[in-house]
Amino acid sequence: MSILVDSIAKSYQSQLALDNISFSANEGEIIGFLGPNGAGKSTMMKILTGYLLPDSGDVEVASKNVLTHPLEAQKQIGYLPEQNPLYSDMFVREYLSFRASIYKQDKARVEEVIQEVGLTPEVHKKIGQLSKGYQQRVGIAAAILHNPTVLILDEPTTGLDPNQLQEIRSLIRELGKEKTILFSTHIMQEVEAVCDRVIIIKKGKLLLDKPLKELRESNLQNIEVTFDYKVEEQFIQKLPNLTSHKNNFDNTWYLTFDAQEDVRPKIFDFAQEHGLKILELSSKNQSLEKLFKEVTSE
Ligand code: ADP
């Protein structure tokens, strides 16, 4: 397990920022950490990287306990904070060499990283002269100098123009071939474009943790329907594309369908054909779209 977060809670004075969060990441996964502003993403990332202590819970990165052995854990972690702290008066190579010296990395490693993140054409410029996209590359370069196995990127694409956005996304995908990456965003399309897995938090609570493939491929539709009188099970089973059914109350069924089209009109047709009346019908779906909307709306 590359990342293991177990029941993390954190408050700032009276403000509860993380409320019993647990999740894990397998080696090599790219995880989108999604949530609106104030959801607790940065707080979680600071805890993961050992910069902030939680009130309770446990965190491991690359099998190292971040709370009890932060220095050992940090050897395995590359971190790009939200406010990418760069020295704008330094030249790119100069800055990266300075950072490399902190990690006791040699010049050859600096050149390797410059190439890896695509900084070669801009390497002789001062950081302050670079576009925001290239500044992010410098931040990412600095984060991977010590060759960590896990990368934590806090909103790495915020403030980028569409081209820069594409480039940073493809860099994240490229780095994700060898590293586990957790990156935060409040943009759903970004998660869809880059990630293997999505974790959604809102107001410090975990709402969803699922592989994207599973979410994309799922055609499951959950419907709760109330008829005007009791309907027998063998009757319900005749509904097309039904995969499971549960009788909640006398006249109410909780039904799951596996179908590409919306099944609701079919249920109405079915009721009519069999002389039944529908008193209530509601979709209980937690589709990706719906969840994202729920998360991004304040
Ligand atoms: P996100 O990164 O998802 O935008 P944060 O982790 O930055 O969310 O913040 C989570 C909550 O904690 C917010 O309500 C924020 O106002 C609060 N918060 C964050 N940092 C501090 C702090 N240093 N002091 C007090 N409250 C904070």
Overall mean confidence score, pLDDT: 90
Backbone structural class: alpha/beta
Cα gyration radius (Å): 24 Å
Estimated helix fraction: 25-40%
Topology pattern, helix = H, strand = E: EEEHEEHEHHHEHEHEEHEHEEHEH
Strand residue content: 25-35%
Q: Any low-confidence stretches, pLDDT <50, length ≥5?
A: none
Bound molecules: adenosine-5'-diphosphate
Strand order of the largest sheet: 6-7-8-3-9-10
Largest sheet: 6 strands, mixed
The number of strands is 14
N- to C-terminal separation? 33 Å
Secondary structure layout plus pairing:
Blueprint: E1 3-12, E2 15-25, E3 30-34, H1 41-48, E4 56-61, E5 64-65, H2 70-74, E6 77-80, H3 92-102, H4 107-116, H5 132-144, E7 150-153, H6 162-175, E8 180-185, H7 188-194, E9 197-202, E10 205-211, H8 212-217, E11 220-227, H9 233-236, E12 242-247, E13 252-258, H10 264-273, E14 278-283, H11 288-296
Parallel strand pairs: 3-8, 3-9, 6-7, 7-8
Antiparallel strand pairs: 1-2, 1-4, 4-5, 9-10, 11-13, 11-14, 12-13
Helix pairs in contact: 3-4, 5-6
The chain binds adenosine-5'-diphosphate (ADP).
Residues 12, 15, 17, 35, 37-43 line the site of adenosine-5'-diphosphate.
Structure description:
- The structure is a single chain.
- With 298 residues, the protein is α/β, with parallel strands linked by helices.
- The protein contains eleven helices and 14 strands.
- The protein has helices at 41-48, 70-74, 92-102, 107-116, 132-144, 162-175, 188-194, 212-217, 233-236, 264-273, 288-296; strands spanning 3-12, 15-25, 30-34, 56-61, 64-65, 77-80, 150-153, 180-185, 197-202, 205-211, 220-227, 242-247, 252-258, 278-283.
- Strand 7 (150-153), helix 6 and strand 8 (180-185) form a beta-alpha-beta unit.
- The radius of gyration is 24 Å and the shape is elongated.
- The model has no long low-confidence stretch (mean pLDDT 90).
- Bound molecules: adenosine-5'-diphosphate.
